[in-house]
Predict the 3D structure of the following.
Amino acid sequence: MRTDSPRTPSPQGPRKASPRSIVIWTLVALVSAAGWSVLALSRGEEVSAAWMVAAALGSYAIAYRFYSKFIAHNVLKVDRTRATPAERLNNGIDFHPTDRRVLLGHHFAAIAGAGPLVGPVLAAQMGYLPGTIWIIVGVIFAGAVQDMVVLFFSTRRDGRSLGQMAREEIGPFGGAAALIAAFAIMIILLGVLALVIVNALAQSPWGTFSIAMTVPIALLMGFYLRVLRPGRVSEVSLIGVALLLFALVAGRWVAESSWADTFTLAPSTLVIWLVAYGFIASILPVWMLLAPRDYLSTFMKIGTIVLLALGVVITLPTLKMDPVTDFASQGDGPVFAGSLFPFVFITIACGALSGFHALISSGTTPKMIQKETQIRMIGYGSMLMESSVAIMALVAASIIDPGLYFAMNAPAGVIGDTVQNASQVVGSWGYQISPEELAAAAKNVEETSLLSRTGGAPTLAIGVSEIFSDVTGGSLRAFWYHFAIMFEALFILTALDAGTRVGRFMLQDTLGNIYKPFKNVSWKPGLVITSGIVCGLWGYFLWVGVHEPLGGINQLFPIFGISNQLLAAVALAVCTTLLVKSGRLKWAWITGIPLVWDATVTLTASWQKVFSSDPRVGFFKQRSVYQDGIDRNELIAPAKNMDDMHTVVTNSTVDGVLTAALALLIVIVIADATRVCIRHVRRPALSTLSEAPYVESQIVAPAGLIPTKEEKEEIRDAVGAEPGGQSG
């Protein structure tokens, strides 16, 4: 039996800490501890949002420096001498050795979709403290670990998809369940991401123009790096950022010019453009559009988040939301129903742990990574970056007036459609805000109304405008609000194009078990056929959802969070199985403990969504209530007519059945993985691994963003080698 043990250990072994290093990390720990202490112990005092930022950044730094390094070098034992699939199978389409800086941008942009932006905003209903704890602790011990370990094992297996790894390592039964669950969940996630983009860009010429311009800019960057000036990442970065900033500024000019109508698109038109873009991005060589576009958008994403953090430090806004609200225990919140456990963990999703990330880590990224030693930075580091986005989203939701927060996020059927009704209803929950204050908040951002602007994105935009306008002396509030809306659309679009390509990989791996040519993911007939199927599936649900408020992807939206977390359970089960089978049994707890927690949370949530007697929580109970309403010829909100009543009944039935089916598939995967692990412990000789053979790497490239002294010397020694060895 082959093992995953490397031929040559990484040279970056344990080193004795210098006094300077000890002092620096002690200070980081003290600042982080101070932040946590203030957040946890404050009782009624005003708390600055800066303490939340301090607690998060300090924890991230310590986790990356120590925990991720321990996993990479002591558990996974990444091997700098081993060639990756990008080097061995380089074909310029899907397999392509990509500079670590560009790949970091691609990976981060691909995993950072709607979840870290809107999930924490919605979870603020429970108070800022539960969300803060889960986002930070969850990412350190679960989310970032999952992403890094999946990326490692997929890289060792020629970039195999998560479902295919499950089939090869767990077995055909559990593997088939994983393949079906992963692909079905992927289509749901892509449809939801696309719907958020459509809602953000519809009737927005500024956002549509700016985002459209990122496509030709990315093509220019791709050809610049591939043809004109290979390896000149710094040059192309400066060019790309300059053009991106120009596109952002020009977007507002366009919105105020005679061209505005050209870029003011209806939702149905946006659906067609999105499906066409997803298809093209999925079949073009990865270096041409996907990687440079994601890298380009990362500058805007990270730049905005860094500026937000600086804005918090400069303006020191206070957290106006309660640390823990009454809704956390009562479970009757207007934003979403259900108690703190398990639903706050389901709602936050991507900021702490996301199954979608495992699909990227076993999709595009393992086919592009230059060295195994870069897995730590790209897998663990990118997830910490996304978690910081979630923290800033939670900050933005928590610094605005709680009355405004609930008026924006409660449905119209609960608070009514006038500021007077909304003020009264929100006041009954214990959060006072006058009708005049609600009207003024909308006027300040040049909106007619902010009532029931559900989904999280508008609330985040309000928080962002609060912080940035305070930095600019209280001015430009409307500008920053609309900038944030456009920023969110760009943020999410990069997850859609990469996700479509990953969906294509998953379908090709699955069909490859039936017809072998599909196993070659760069086989042109296969990639065109599967890309068309994937785009057609999520495009269909999106099209129906845009035209029917209660249909299409809207029908599946309620199971978005649970589906994502169930997929994480599949990824963690595969990781734990591979750790056991590859001789790392003593380290299986690293993914095993997060697996137990995630399975407990998601299966509990699934059970409640299927069987709860509360119609706001349980799908089948909701179906029963609306069916009784139909029998009595009575309308129940949000239905506006009897056709809507029948649609709600159908949706509740579909959501309940799908939730139960997906939960059952995940139970099968976990049970089969447990069986395989027990069998390996008892009779290891029966186990086999599908790891690719060792091939020595000829690429010389640093492990992190900044080369070490030893890596610089190694690069200088490789000046006369292949172009791939000239990365610096």
Q: What stands out?
A: The two ends are 37 Å apart (CA to CA). Residues 642-682 form the longest helix (41 residues). DSSP finds 29 helices and no strands in the chain.
